[in-house]
């Protein structure tokens, strides 16, 4: 089995070396970059299996790098972990809204970083193994599980892996109320260290893509104090 390839952008040399040494010691292939521009110029023709992006960078910051990766067809489904020295909710939420799959606040332990990387790869592998030639549809939303494509009407909607998995599990359980904890477990994995706030952020971003009016959603309903439900009622 080939090694997973990870691209890391980090401008602090000692952190860069720490990540590279420990990831390579655990069997990963690692390429490191000092700035976002260099990573972007190297990743589209040689796409890795995971990105680790520091937020605070010279030139374009990690949030902008994340945004551009999600806008490109060759990298829009590649998992992204954000590194940030800031702990404010704004940075975490913005990173998740731009399409990051996870974030780690500095200072972090190598063990925690490895656990999150392995958890992300397990989720991706499980998703790939469970793909069957299945179409899930409701109203004008259609999911092709085999091709990992989502359509609204006849228009394809680009979305990162976590949004896709979240929509899929909601639509497969139409009419059922799914708690935030359940969704966090099924989409991010039982060993994910994040908060249920992560689910809320991804739901909001998902609504912006599939709802006619994301301020007054009719497909993904909020069940106050519990979680979310995909409406199983057809529009009149």
From TrEMBL:
GO terms for cellular component: cytosol; protein-DNA complex. GO terms for molecular function: phosphorelay response regulator activity; transcription cis-regulatory region binding. Signal peptide: none annotated. SMART domains: REC (SM00448), Trans_reg_C (SM00862). One of its GO terms (biological process) is regulation of DNA-templated transcription. InterPro entries: CheY-like_superfamily, OmpR/PhoB-type_DNA-bd, Sig_transdc_resp-reg_C-effctor, Sig_transdc_resp-reg_receiver, WalR-like, WH-like_DNA-bd_sf. Keywords: DNA-binding, Phosphoprotein, Transcription, Transcription regulation, Two-component regulatory system. The keyword Metal-binding does not apply. It comes from the Bacteria. Pfam families: Response_reg, Trans_reg_C. Transmembrane segments: none annotated. PANTHER family: ALKALINE PHOSPHATASE SYNTHESIS TRANSCRIPTIONAL REGULATORY PROTEIN PHOP, REGULATOR OF RPOS. May play the central regulatory role in sporulation. It may be an element of the effector pathway responsible for the activation of sporulation genes in response to nutritional stress. Spo0A may act in concert with spo0H (a sigma factor) to control the expression of some genes that are critical to the sporulation process. This is Stage 0 sporulation protein A homolog. It comes from Ruminiclostridium herbifermentans.
